[in-house]
């Protein structure tokens, strides 16, 4: 009878263990190998049909949903949204959200109760005895709220930081599109100049045959043509590099051609708010600063949790024991740690030091952001001054080239001086567009630094079209 009673107790415990296993919902292992099929699936070309749907549903603190249509080429805003949806680097960054959510779940889980079972078999001169104890770490309840608060703030910090990373990638895609448009204008100017100089060279060669000009004239014309031709090739190379950079930002293969919309108003940033206006409310607007602040709040809660956890650990339990020859005893048991050595002082010091670091990092980031805004505004002002000066220079140089051209017709000018002046004019025209491109780059940088858009683009390149009087030919 004693044997059957002991076996019954063991069977009951086994059944309870099985039930507990199913109730807790244990996870199962699933392999996730990295092989060629996994790589090809992860890096396959994005579906534009899927992008068109997602672009209308996007939710972001700064970016707005748009009607995406790449069939007529992508605009800067469409490139920004496409990059956010398809950039593979952002996929890895977004996985941090799942990690933070897992940490939130872990922070809210209470420790399992502990079950102690003691049995003794009947040997000579003894009888069966048993003991049963159930206890639980009560102290975990004290810091649970603070742990949950820390985990929740961390989730918010990660979400905002991911949005900040998305915003930067979006702006990078936008920047590359504008750069391609600016470089295209430079290539057009160089191409038109090369075409005009090539026609001019043919005219000079014919003039040499008739004895009107000499070999020196041919050499001067060929030298100028080759100089501008080399400049054109450099611009084409820069254009290809920028195209590769755009594809990388968009998560597209390097060799895939991306059609850019034409007739887009290029940014010239005619007027901007002052530095004080832009920096006002910066810490409530820039996503990275908001993420740092949430991270600081999370750390503040961790400090509080560490302080609360310095109290001695308390375990409260239920016990039951006895044997078949004596009455069964039942009671409560309390286990209390004596805080002679470990009062959680190490963890408290660590959390406080981390909090101080985050505080100083937050202040340093604000200082850096304000300084960056002032620097960009100063650089934009200088570039605008250079643009205005270059525009005046081009206007005067056009007159000078025309003067030398007229003087050459009557033999009152040196052919080398004329071609040097002509070469300088072509170079200045391209330099003018480069300055406009630099201003455009600085404008995008200002938007990133300020954490907001600055609308009000104006079409630039006025008076610097593909047709130019820099292509006059000697007759």
Automatic annotation (TrEMBL):
Question: Where does the record place a coiled coil?
Answer: none
Which SUPFAM superfamilies does the entry link to? Answer: Outer membrane efflux proteins (OEP) (SSF56954)
MF (Gene Ontology) = efflux transmembrane transporter activity
Q: Which Pfam families match?
A: OEP
Protein name, entry field: Transporter
Q: Where are the transmembrane segments?
A: 12-32
User: Domain of life of the organism in this record?
Assistant: Bacteria
Read off the lineage from the record.
Answer: Bacteria, Pseudomonadati, Planctomycetota, Candidatus Brocadiia, Candidatus Brocadiales
Q: Which family does it belong to?
A: Belongs to the outer membrane factor (OMF) (TC 1.B.17) family.
UniProtKB keywords: Membrane, Transmembrane, Transmembrane helix
